[in-house]
Amino acid sequence: MMLYLLWAAAAATAGYHLVAAWAALRQWRRSPATPTNPGPVSILKPVRGLDPGFYDAIRGHARQVYAPGFELLFGVADPADPAIAEIERLQAEFPHLRIACIRVTHRAPNGKVAALVELGREARHPLWLVNDSDIAVEPGYLNQVTAPLADPAVGVVTCLYRADSRGAAGRWEALGIAIDFAAGVLVAPLVGIKEFGLGATLVFRADDLARIGGFARLETYLADDYQLARHITQLGKRVELSPTVVETTLGEDTWRGIIKHQVRWARTIRVSRGDGYWGLPVTHAGLWMVILLLSGQWAAAALVLLARWASAFATGVLVLRSQVARAGFWLAPLWDCFAFGIWLAGARFNTVEWRGQRLELRPDGTMKPNDEAK
User: Fold this and answer.
1) pTM as predicted
2) How far apart, in whole angstroms, are the C-alpha atoms of residue 215 and residue 128?
3) Contact present, 62 and 170 (Cβ < 8 Å)
């Protein structure tokens, strides 16, 4: 009986990774969207401090060529934030473009959303694009990510991202993003998860956001990107995953820091999508390989290894074009064992550390105010 269970586990995890590899190949073969220029765009970027490569990242946005026009709005809460000088430098380099630095005075449990509330008041255009301040983009990005909104059935456009870092700890986390997280995003629509949204890029109509209650509806959620997509899909619209891939440089580069980040991420996923969270160990192929090897099931372990390498290579190297994944995709089973440990830590407790604060997550994914957090 135990032998049958082990082979069933091997079949499940190998099957998942073969599906992930197939989904990645399908994404890799997608042709770039035909630019349709559905309307002018307001790019909203909450900012806190100087991320690695910050100026190059925001300059890449300002250099976009987009016929209907766009504006670039930054929200900064701290008047002494060093990012302000870089935003002023961008304004001087691109005087023809509306680039505004908005002083954020609004307060909310989610500081990023507090900034978005004020940026939304200043936005002039019908299409809004929100992405993290450290996101670097390629020429043609704006044309590509807005094109799907020509279809009224599309409510949100989002993007995968690749990451890099200067140190070993950060590169380890970047590897996980490329070979694990990205695979999960590609498989999600195939198993009925339609409402995913990634902070690397969210493009949507201002009118649709107003219909769900505006950014204020998201102020108490930690996973504001997921919740934005979720609420807009509840209007009967769908999320479109663009073939465009953006890039970020991870600022955290200590082992303690990335573990905290991963645990926070895991707990956020659990309270946002608890049904999917409990099934995640099926994806941890490295864990099942160890169990199979200890049980003497070498053939099953080899099957799992090959399937795992296939999904890691397809997602990390082909789709994301990640140099970190190209060098280390073969370490995927080791990442899985690490990820299982993170999963165990995420399965317990509801407290997270975020931006120097200790917060408690409610079962619905909202955060308790700081003075209530345990």
Assistant:
1) 0.92
2) 12
3) no
